[in-house]
Amino acid sequence: MKKWIRLPAFMAAFLLALILPFSNAQAASLNDGTYSVNYTVLKAEGNAVSMANDYWLKPAKVIVKNGKPTVQMTIKNSSWVTEFKVPGNGGYVDTTVLSTNKKANTRLVQFQAQSLSKPIKSKIHVTVKSADYDHDYTIQLKFDESSIKSLSSNSSNKTAGAAENHQSSKESTKKSDSSTHTKQEENPQTGDTSQTGWLLVLVLCSGGFLARKWIIKH
Questions:
Q1: Dist CA 131 CA 54 (whole Å)
Q2: What is the distance of C-alpha 170 from the center of its chain?
Q3: Domain that residue 94 falls in
Q4: I need a labelling partner for 40 at 20 to 30 A (CA). Which of 4, 66, 162, 169 fits?
Q5: What are the tens digits of pLDDT across the range 45-78?
Q6: CATH no. for residue 103?
Q7: Is the pLDDT of residue 14 over 80?
């Protein structure tokens, strides 16, 4: 009886050992394109959420070009966060300011990241003149790779103009045409799912064969 209990446990562990590295590899490697990703601002050490987490808008935008990700994020309370630096050139470098909105007190910044798989340790300077507050802090930017969503890709960028022209010339098209167009845009995202499905089938078949041999021997 114990042998029959141990066999499913062994097969489950074997299945997870194969699937998890496969999933992580997919998340770590992104094709050239534009993505959104959620993230959390953590304290300098550990996984505790920093108070500065409320100063950053989510999600961030990630633009991948030649395999290198560039992260864009918006800082709230921009007048308070007077400095925002990330690793670079052997130390820390200022992030690039793309735009500011004085009325909303926000600014859009960007920086190039080596990877989104590990937290990015950053430096910020917070100044609140009305409260006589002036301090430096070290934070970590932890990205949730499972939340990554594709906003565009190289192939979709090439056909974007043609798609817009087609849509404007077909303002009176039927809803069925619209749903077909939507499905065509979503199709590229099914590639990873189908690969995972084939992996599952492969593992289950192999597991069944091993289980059969194990049962015959015992």
A1: 18
A2: 35
A3: 33-150
A4: 66
A5: 999 999 999 999 999 999 999 999 999 999 999 9
A6: 2.60.40.1850
A7: no
Q: Look at the chain and report how many structural domains it folds into.
A: 2
Q: Is the pLDDT of residue 119 over 90?
A: yes
83 and 23 belong to one structural domain: no
Q: Do residues 10 and 25 share a domain?
A: yes
Instruction: List 123's β-bridge partners, or say none.
Output: 85, 138
In this predicted model, what pLDDT tens digit does every residue of 36-47 receive, in sequence order? 999 999 999 999
- Pair 198, 184 in one domain: yes
User: For position 166, what pLDDT does the model report?
Assistant: 47
12 part of a folded domain: yes
Positions of E strands within 4-119:
33-37, 39-43, 60-65, 68-75, 81-88, 91-94, 96-101, 106-112
Give the pairing of strands 81-88 and 106-112.
unpaired
Co-location of 97 and 39 in the same domain:
yes
Which run of H or of E encompasses 176? helix 175-186
Q: Are residues 46 and 139 in the same domain?
A: yes
* Residue 132 three-state SS: coil
Q: Is 58 in contact with 96 (CB distance < 8 Å)?
A: no
